[in-house]
From TrEMBL:
The lineage of its organism: Bacteria, Pseudomonadati, Pseudomonadota, Alphaproteobacteria, Hyphomicrobiales. Residues 4-295 form the Carbohydrate kinase PfkB domain. Signal peptide: none annotated. The keyword Kinase applies. InterPro entries: Carboh/pur_kinase_PfkB_CS, PfkB_dom, Ribokinase-like. It comes from the Bacteria. This is Ribokinase. Keywords: Kinase, Transferase. GO terms for cellular component: cytosol. The keyword Cell inner membrane does not apply. One of its GO terms (molecular function) is kinase activity. SUPFAM superfamilies: Ribokinase-like.
């Protein structure tokens, strides 16, 4: 293992229903399948763990059936929990409805992961060589946002901090969001989240504003674009669009988490940012060909996929040359 990821986000249990399409208001649908799986921040942790990072969890799990389920899932992936379980409540859960076009709709119920205090986080010790990750979900909870923001601000300057604002960014008070962005080493978000922070515009323009006006300490920004790939903007001024990979998607749940986990893992092993982004694009592409949010591939699977796609691109290039 080349580095350790300290994840101070949240993990929940996903109750996943697959349906052909969302029901109209006042109507009912029968799901074609159902599964209970570990979700939330667990998906990102799995992506990092399966690609050569040691992962530890610094958030809080609950006491009850959902907390027990998550602990078992963590143990199966070799992920240690640093904090004691909440004696007062169970872990939260999320109902995920996956429609026939592979898109998803969520309804969540917060639990122990939504109450994070500095006292609870005392066992979460960060050492040189660690990477730290947090998400907007934990910052959106009134019972955890102040403690987590303060803890992030106290991180050693040499420890990289990665932040994903997530779709709940509008629920994060702006002063809290600004404090966390000011500490961010790498920001990974989608186009809507980037615009929520820095205003509308094309991806490159927004990325420039993110670095210049909101993330003064950042080494770079990644704006994810799903199947189209991502844009990487570096603090030194370099910008590059990293193409995605066309695959038959069956479930997009967890693709963004997989992308971030693989990207951080790549960076921690010394990959240049754009190479790490391509690696993350491949990881996300593989994940959407599989059911379940924690469907991240292993490093070997990603490397084999990249070799195959590279060979296919080379063969296509030769065909193009032969016809001209």
């Amino acid at each position: 293992m080349s580095a350790r990821l300290v994840h101070v986000g949240s993990a929940v249990v996903d109750y996943v229903y697959r349906i052909d399409a969302l029901p109209a208001p006042g109507t009912e649908k029968t799901a074609t399948s159902y599964a209970r799986v570990a979700g939330g921040g667990f998906n990102m942790m799995v992506a990092a763990s399966r690609t050569a990072m040691k992962v530890v969890f610094g958030g809080q799990l609950g006491t009850g059936p959902d907390g027990d389920f998550l602990r078992a899932a963590f143990a199966a992936e070799g992920i240690d929990t640093l904090t004691p379980p909440s004696p007062l409540m169970d872990s939260g859960n999320c109902v995920a409805m996956i429609s026939g076009d592979a898109e998803r709709t969520f309804v969540s119920w917060p639990g122990a992961e939504s109450v994070l205090t500095l006292d609870v986080m005392v066992p979460v010790e960060v050492t040189p060589g660690d990477w730290v990750f947090a998400s907007g979900y934990t910052l959106s909870y009134p019972g955890s946002r102040d403690a987590l923001a303060g803890w992030i601000e106290a991180l050693p300057a040499e420890v990289p901090f990665v932040f994903d604002p997530t779709p709940v960014i509008a629920d994060i008070p702006r002063p809290i969001l600004d404090r966390v962005l000011a500490c961010t080493t790498w920001l990974s978000c989608n186009a809507d989240e980037a615009a929520e922070i820095a205003g509308s515009g094309d991806a490159q323009t927004v990325a420039i504003r993110l670095l210049a006006e909101h993330c003064p300490k950042a080494a770079g920004v990644v704006i994810r674009a799903g199947a189209q790939g991502c844009l990487v903007r570096l603090a030194d001024g370099g910008t590059r669009a990293i193409p995605g990979f066309e695959v038959p998607a069956v479930d997009t749940n967890g693709a963004g988490d997989t992308h971030i986990g693989a990207f951080v893992s790549g960076l921690s092993r010394g990959m240049p940012p754009c190479e790490a982004a391509r690696y993350a694009n491949a990881a996300a592409a593989l994940s959407v060909t599989r059911h379940g949010g924690s469907s991240a591939p292993t490093d070997r699977e990603i490397q084999e996929f990249l070799i195959q796609r590279g060979q296919a691109a080379a063969a296509h290039g030769r065909e193009q040359e032969a016809t001209t």
